[in-house]
Each structure stands twice: as structure tokens, then as C-alpha cells.
Queue: 2 jobs
Job 1
Amino acid sequence: MSTETASNLNIDRSIGDFSYPESHQYDAGVGLTHDTIDYIAGVKGEADWVREYRHKALDIFTSKPMPTHWASHDLDAIVFDNIRYYLSNGQKANRSWDDVPEDMKRTFERLGIPEQERRFLAGVEAQFDSEAVYSNIKKAVGDQGVIFVGPTEGLRDHPEIFKKWFGKVIPAGDNKFSALNSAVFSGGSFIYVPPGVKVKHPLQAYFRINAENFGQFERTLIIADEGSEVMYMEGCTAPKFETATLHSAVVELVAMKGAKIQYITVQNWSANVFNLVTKRAVAHEEAEVKWIDCNIGSRLTMKYPGVVLKGRKARGEVISIALANDGQHQDTGAKMIHAADETTSNIISKSISVGKGRATYRGLVHVPKHLKGCKNNTECDALLINSTSRTDTYPAITVRGTGNAVQHEASVSQISAEQIFYMQQRGLTEGQAMSLSVNGFVNDLVRQFPMEYSVELKRLIDLEMEGSVG
Amino acid sequence: MSSLVIKDLHVNIGDKEIVRGLSLEVERGKVHAIMGPNGSGKSTLAKVLGGHPDYTVTSGEVLMDGEDILALAPDARSRKGLFLAFQYPMEIPGVSIANFLRAAVQSRLADGEELEATEYYARLYEKMDALEMPRNFTSRSVNEGFSGGEKKRNEILQMAMLNPKYAILDETDSGLDIDALRIVSGGVNKLRGPEVGILLITHYQRLLDYIVPDYVHVMVEGRIVMSGDKDLALQLEEKGYDWVKEGLQEPAGV
């Protein structure tokens, strides 16, 4: 709810919009060739198989066309030759905030990360451009055998755990941008939770783009072993630059038998970021994977978190909130691939379009003929704020066989002038009235978030809505 | 000057003139009732005073304690102490009564001043008890799925929480059964006092048995055509609006 005063809002509005001068020790330069890959692999000191994987992925990326036959032509505005693919000051993530270079430390302090860590997190990783500058896991959690590192460390120090699943849930060739990420990935989180371990507090990663013309390509792989539980949260920001910035991550989750993974994203990209992310999970027998995905900001976001329900009684869920402000396109949705009996999936998507903002929902639900006892529920609701706002829904639901059930509901609603007048008559400004209505619209979903994140999300919605009225 | 003064107000919707030269003064501490047949412009008057964007004031003034409020946005009028109880209160899905009222109360505080939550809830519960509203009401979405009586009680609850200087109650009795009418008017009567001026807009005399007005005005075709004390309402009840209309001299050609 909007309880901040006007002056607070003004300060808050610029929360992510600041940057420090760059001074990078390692810079792969502009453009992407096989030399760029060798440079990145060299800086990281990677094993040959990883280097080889990157080179192959680059070939796939180059050979694949842009998906503009179904996706937005705005993708054509990305000039891959103008982007810088790797910027860092080395490989070593500090374990103490005191050792983080001053300007980066100040960046994360302004974003409130060290404070959140003290208050409620089990571990934090803070990435600045291409590499993590801070990474720490609480000792008690580490002592349980939980691994929380970056991909370079993960593939180098724990290949027996990570190599088996790396690139298996989402192969390099899955799509053009997963290929791009597989070629130049850097930073991100590799997490392993041993059998039966229930990580009580969330692990969090924070991704910060500081440099202009830059591409951030973090790579995340979370493996929850049998009967374990983990909650992972990620936040993202970037300052407002004149030129386009690219963020293209790949996130793979593996939930072994009876494991539970919750993956929460609250992204607040500035309005010139192309955010093209591939996220997918495999859920084994009786495992549960829940994606909670909040997309605010960016110029174009394309993201459809998915779950492959591979084992009997596996359960997948996607809870998605997207807010498309003027000039933004949130193209989001979910994929549920049922591949075993008695698997269930639930998709709830709510989008808000403001001004000339555009929200698109794409859903894929697949239940093949030979399966029995599968269930899917899909609900997608769109809220249009202005008459110029746009929403589109493309649900693709294939359910074959006789013993499976599917349910799909969709709605489009608008905030009426009478509603706004009613709220204004009680003293709320037009902007506050809008925010409150929008918060009301997503309220049932926000309640599923951990407290700290629901407060943050409400605040972000307030900021977006404040800016949207005259 | 502690009054709400309406001077020769003319109001259009599109090209159509709805309020046609209405003047009225509502002093703090007094209750004025406006009665009138359907289509007389009563509800338009209420919405115009609230600042509804669909209506255009073509001439006239509305002064609240001496200040012209017509140029102010609806929310600014509200924060200055003008309250409108709606004939048809709007639903706000997903927003609880507690959160909505909290935002409304907070909007009246100075920049940087935070509402004290325990005090707020204590006050809210006290007002709800007076209106015989169960505590779980606070967690329900504003007006969503409410009965007519619940909606009107919710309006009076908001009025009680916002302590207006001037309150306009638009057809507050419509859609109420006799028990709800008793509760709602009991709530309004508790809020009566030297600090608040109340303008009751109603079609029926019935409400005025419960909230006894100091003055009664009859509105016909966008103007006040007759004023008196509470007995005027009884006369109207007896003789009907035609009695008033017959006494009016219509300008030729209308």
C-alpha cells in the first residue's frame, strides 16, 4: 500500500538509477567471436570441456535465426556487435563486505543487500556486471553440506555434482538466447542441497548491471537432492543508460525425488534492458517446483519458466506477475510438460498494462495421451489501466488421453473512472488510487511471497503507478 | 466562515444543463436535507461537490470555509474535509477495508508522519462496534460482494474515520431494510455535532424520521424551489412532489 510520502517516493524512484565510473581489469571488448570465448575461458581458467561447450554454443547461436516469426520484432533492435560480453575485476568473490571494492560495496548498500543478509537470508551472492563481488553462505548452512558458489567454481571444484546436470535441463540449442548464454555465461549461482537438508532461510542472489552497452549472462543451476528443500530469490537492477543493455540468463533447476524448490524473482530493470531469460526445472517423483516470477521494468522481457514433470506425482507451479509500463513489453508465461502419471501443474498469471504498455501471456501445457491422472489449472488475468494499454493471451494447451483434467480461465478487466473517483474522494491522489487498485489486483499472489519480498513488490508497483499518471 | 456555500451553481453533463442556478449554505453544526423527485439533479449536485470529472461547472461558486474548491481535485477536496457518502459505493477488488481506510487516513497526515497502527486499529474497531460491524469486516475487500446495508454502513464507517467538516450523504437510505436504516442513521446521528455540516440527499421522507434535519429544501429541475424546517418533509410526504411542481412558474418554451 502506498504509505510513503511524496518526498520518499522521489528518493525511492531513483533507487537503482545510479552508476559508478567503470574501471575493469578484464574486458573482452565489443562484439562476439570465438576469440571472445577464448578470452572469457582464459580469464576464468576453465577446463577444456567447458571451453569446448562455449565454442559449440556460439556456433549454435550464430546459426539460429531470431525467433521473430512468433516474437516481437523489437528483438531486431539488439545489435550484438555493439555489446560487451565480459567485464570484471577478477574471479575472487569476497566473503566479507569489508573486502568488496568501495564503489561496488556502496552500490549494494544503496540497494539494501547487506542489511537483508543480516536480517533474513541464509546466503547471499552479489554480482556486479560479469562476476560476483561478494558471496557468502551462513556457516550453519554450509556445515549441512549446502554448496552455494558461482558456475566457474561449481564446474571446477564440484564437477561430480554439477557436470551431470549442467546444460541438460536447458541444452545450448534450446533457443537462440540459451545458446548465447551457453557461449558467454559468467556469474550466477550453482547450488547443491544434500538429501534431506531443509534450508530454513532463503538463499539470495542480486544481479547488478553497472556498465553501458553491456550484456549480463549469468547461469544458475540448482540441484535439490532427495527430500531436500530450498528457497532461492533473485533481484536485478540496472541504471538508466542511453543505449540498450542485454540480460540473458539461463536457469536450470533439478528437484530430485520428494525435493522442493521455490525460485523467486523480483526484477526491476531499467527501461532499456532487453531481458531474455530461459528458465526450466525438472521435477522428479513427488518433487515440487514453484516459480514465483515478478517482472517489472525492462524494454522487452521474454520469459516462460517451465517445469518438466518427469516423475510420478510431481508438481509444478508458476505464479507470475508482470507490469508493462509505457514503452515496455512483458512477454511472459509458463510451460508445463507433463511426462509422468498423476502429475499436477498450476499456472496463475496476472498482468497489468499501463499507458502504451503491452503484456503478453504465452502458456504451454502438454499432457500426452498415455498418461493418467494428470491435472492442470491455468488462470490468467489482465488488467488494463488506460485505453491505449494492450494485452494478448496465447494459451497452447494440449491434453490427450481420457484420464487427465485441465481447466483454463482468463479475464481482462479495467480500472474504472468511477473506482478512481471513489478512492480520490477519500483523499488518495489519482496515482495512489491506481497503485492501490493494482496492488489489490495482484494481492492474492503477493501474499504467497515471503514478507520482505511482498513489501518490496508493493513498493515497486507504487513507484511504477505514481509515474504513470499525469 | 464555517460553512459550505453554493452560489448560483450551473452544471452540465455534455451539453445538457442539470443543475440550473442552485444556491445553498450548509453551516457546520447543521443538517440540511435536499429532497426531490427523480431526475431533479440531486445526485449530480453531490457528485459535483465531490469533484467528479464527468460534470462541468459552467458558472457559480462553491466555497468551503471561504475557500473556492471548484478548482481542486477530488482528493484535495477530501483532504480539506469534504466527504461524500456514495449512493452506489464502488467495489475495489483485493483491497481490504483496513488497508483502504488506512491509506485514506494516512493521506491526511503531514509528509513524513506515519500512522500509528495500534491507535488506528483501536479507533477503527470502536467505530465498527458503533455500526454493529463484525471485526472480520476489515479484511474483506472494499464493497466486494457486500449487501446494500453493508455498503452503506461501510460508507458511514469511512465518514466516522475521516472526521469530515462537511458530509454529503447521497441517498444513503436507498437499498436499506428497516434494521439497516436504523443502524446507519444511528451512526450518522452519532457523528452529528457542532464541527460538521451535513447535507442529506434523499428521495423519501423516511430517512428524515431517523436523522431529523434542521432544514429541508426541495429541489426540482436543478434548482431549490422551496425551503423550510423538518415539517416541510412531512408536507411533501403527504402531498407529493406534484404539489411543489404545480406551484412553480415554468419559463415559457421549456
Job 2
Amino acid sequence: MTPETTAHFGQISAAAGMGLSVVGLGVGVGLIFASFIQGIARQPELEGKLMTWTLVGAAIVEGIAIFAAIMCFLAIHG
Amino acid sequence: MLVKLFNLGSIILLLSLLGFWLDQKFHTLPLWTVIGIALGMAYSFYEAWLIHKG
Amino acid sequence: MSPKFDLNDFIMHHIGDSYEWHIPLLSPIHLPSFLTVHMLMLLIGTFFLLILMLVIYRKQDRVPTGMTNFIEFVVEYIRNEIVIPNMGEEEGTKFTPMFCTFFFFILLLNLMGLIPVFSTATGNINLTAGLAFLIFILMVGGTLVRGGLVGMWHALVPPGIPGWFVPFMFVIEVFLLFVRCVALAMRLFANMIAGHIVITAFLGLCILYGVFAGILAFPMAVVFYCMEIFVCLLQAFIFVLLSAIFIGHMYHPKH
């Protein structure tokens, strides 16, 4: 483990970490919108609370993935 | 409406340019410019407050 | 295509805070030592907000038109759908001006970052941490003022749980109090920074690899720019909605 071989660990781990966290993000947002579409199919109350809470849920789930993105950016530089 | 906005913007610009000119005369670079900008913003806010009130 | 172009440097230069304000087609303006670019954007944004509310909003019209209509729609939406369902009737109407101020302030600061002359002030963790700290003070201080320490205890630990569980509930709730405010700050900061990093990275790809990558990368940058407008609105709305939910949860705990 010379400094030449450990110099790029930060970059490799940042890329791998970001790729893994996006897997969970995709599944989460897909579930949210799947239940949104099912809810509209049962009762078309589209302009009511469904759209609001769908976007709120998507923003919260994406916020978690963006925490991971910031940590990966910090991991690149050491 | 555009005339009012232009008035408010030009108050700040003129007072800050006045401060910048004073700076050039006395060679104290940020001081008078910042005071000019601050006074410009204060007077412009006062004018906006008068517009809001009546 | 210069051989010493560093993509990391290019991105960090456009995202980070500095003492030089770069205006397109002019030389960079050196700011004095107590003012950085993000602080200057904060002052300019505050000024825009004051002008928006004092001059552009006309309250002597009978029928609101234009920008007045939009502002009234937003304020009514915040009062009816965000504040009153979470905080009750009388307290809701008393807290509406504060949440409207937060919404318009964050929205203006976010949207100013999309104009080339200005830069995103909410892309600084210190500003979003300050806003989340205000929400934290409202949550803790407001609960203490309204009910004293007893009210704080009832907000954290609901009165119907078995005795052996109380210490765990207390620790978890105190931890959650801090984590929710930190998450508010981090969510707003990270969303703004991520959008700008993506746009700057695509434009840096155009510079780095010449025109053949630029044909594909430049439209991607434009698409992300359009999505960024939507993200600015959504993040301001999410901040206000979540802070109303947290404050209402502390003031009227219905576990």
C-alpha cells in the first residue's frame, strides 16, 4: 500500500458509493410514483393532495441521495 | 411602475458612484464606496416605504 | 482547448465562495475583506425582496393583476394548505407572515443563482444552517415559552407510554430534534449545489473535449438548467412545508 496505489482510493470509493446510493433512490422514487398513479386510477382527485404529497415525498427521498452525493464529493479530495 | 423601479435603482447607483468618486479623490478605496452603497440602499428603502404607505 | 484545463478547479471556482465578483464582459470586482460574493448576493436578494413586497405589490387595486395576483395566490396557499392544517387556526394566522417570508426569501435567493451575473447564496452551508437554526430556535424556544419545561417534556415524551420506555423515547426525540433541523439545512444546500455542479460539469466537458462532445453536452446542460428552475421552487416549498410540520408537531403534539 504505497502512496502511489492509495492515491486514487478516494475517487474509486466516491464513484462506487454514488452508484450504489442511486440504486436505492431509483427504487424509492419509483415506488412513490407507482402508488401515485394507482391512487389516481382509483379516484381521479388529481388536483388535490395526491400531487402535493407525491412531489414532497420525491423531494425528501432525493434529499437523502444528495446527502450521499455531498459525502462522495468530500471523499474525492481525501 | 417601471419609472418607480428605475428611480429606486438610480438612487443607489448615483449615491454609490458619488462614494466611489470621493474614494478616488482621497485614495481610501473601499470606505466611501461602501458608505455610498449603504446610504443609497437606506434612502431607496425609505422611498419604497413611502410608496407602500400611500 | 487549453492543455492545462482542470475540470475540478473549474467547477470549484464557479461553485465556491470568493472575494472576487466575476461579471461577464467586465473585469472581476475585488470585494473588501468583510464581504464575500455570497454575502453580497444576500444583501442584493434582501433588497429585491423588499422592492418586491413594497413597490411591485399594489394593495390599492380592487382586483389583483399580474405579480400582485401571484403573490396573493402564494400567500393564500401557504396559509390554507401549509400553516393552518399543521398549527391550528389562530396560531396559524399569526405564523403565516413568517413562513411567507421564508418562502419568498429562499425562492428569490435560489432563482438569483440562475442569472449569470449573480450567484446562489443558498449554495452556502452557512446560510442554510442559519435558516435552520432559526427554525430550531422557534421549535425549542417557542415550546419553552408556551408551556415551560413541562410543555417541552410533553412534546418530546407523550404521556401514554410504559415507564421503562421513557428514557429511550427521550433520547430518540432529542436526537430527532437536532437531526430534523440539520436535514433541513443540508437538503436545501445540497440540492442547490448539486444542480450547479451538474450544469458546470457539462459546460466544462464542452470546453475539455471540444465541439464534438459539445454537441451532446450543451443541450444536456440546457435541460438540467430547466430542471433547476423547478428544483428551486420545489426546495423552497419543501423547506416551508417541513418547518411548518416540525413546529406544529412541537407546539401541538398529537402522537
